[in-house]
Amino acid sequence: MDFLFAPPVPVNLPIQGNSQRFPVHRVYCIGRNYGDHVREMGGDAKRSSPVFFMKPADALWLDGAVPYPGATGDLHHEVEMVVALARGGREIAVADALACVYGYGVGLDLTRRDLQNLAKADGAPWDSAKGFDASAPISTLTPASVCGHPQHATLELQVNGSTRQQVDIGDMIWALPEIIHELSRLWTLAPGDVIFTGTPAGVGPLRRGDRYRAMLGNIATLEGHLL
């Protein structure tokens, strides 16, 4: 096949203990998935239809040095358990969902909060608030064959050595099998899909020079700083 110009290198993620890389297809995110975070954002924490949005695959960021984005004065951190799929499909049953999971990691859903608030007020999409360059720092993946499928694990974010966010993933409103099921009702999921599973309370600003450390139990760790 003759391309007009060189196509971009496919986005891929490192895998713990494996020289192979995980090729990324799409990046899905779920909002409002921890009751305490829903309440701190002024919402109703009762279970309702899940809220999904997407980030570009190349928003995933593996470099520990994260550039502070333009067009915002209020960049927020949102720590999340990240799930990578090796199988996909449509209308995936809840009982079959975990069989699609390749592995787990931890990531940050960086958010231009000021732009998001403006979009919400206008009833506009969140793309510029969520899908910008380097908006999804992510750790190395740990295969489920190594860590299993965690039902309980501490999800934590420290900024400059102080804990900002901390929760047990068992507190998710929509558990992982339900997330996969609901996503597969809206899109055909595929091998290489990555899912950010929601953030707990404690979201707040990141500033240039801040250092962060995100952890998912003993499964994954992500460290870096803002340029």
Strand content: 25-35%
In DSSP terms (H or I, runs of 4 or more residues), the helix count works out at 5
Average pLDDT, rounded to a whole number, is: 95
Count of extended strands: 18
Q: Explain this structure to me?
A:
Helices cover 15% and strands 35% of the residues. It is built from five helices and 18 strands. The N and C termini lie far apart (39 Å). Strand 13 (154-159) and strand 14 (162-168) form a beta hairpin. Strands 4-3-15-8-9-12 form a six-stranded mixed β-sheet. A five-stranded mixed β-sheet has the order 6-18-17-13-14, with no helix packed on it. Strands 10-7-16 form a three-stranded antiparallel β-sheet.
Topology:
Elements lengths: L11 E4 L2 E6 L3 E5 L3 H6 L10 E5 L4 E2 L3 E2 L8 E3 L1 E7 L15 E8 L2 E2 H10 L4 H4 L5 E2 L4 E2 H4 L6 E6 L2 E7 L7 H11 L7 E3 L7 E2 L5 E6 L3 E7 L1
Parallel strand pairs: 3-15, 5-11, 6-18
Antiparallel strand pairs: 1-2, 3-4, 7-10, 7-16, 8-9, 8-15, 9-12, 13-14, 13-17, 17-18
Sum up the structure in keywords.
alpha+beta, 227 residues, single chain, 6-stranded mixed sheet
Concise summary:
The chain is of the alpha+beta class and 227 residues long. It has helices spanning 35-40, 113-122, 127-130, 144-147, 176-186, and strands at 12-15, 18-23, 27-31, 51-55, 60-61, 65-66, 75-77, 79-85, 101-108, 111-112, 136-137, 142-143, 154-159, 162-168, 194-196, 204-205, 211-216, 220-226.
